[in-house]
Amino acid sequence: MFDFILLFFDISTGEIIIILIVVFLIFGPQKIPELARKIGKGVYEIKKASREIKDEINSEVNKVEKESGIKDIDDKLKEFKNTVK
Question: N or C: which end of the chain has fewer CB within 10 A?
Answer without folding.
Answer: C
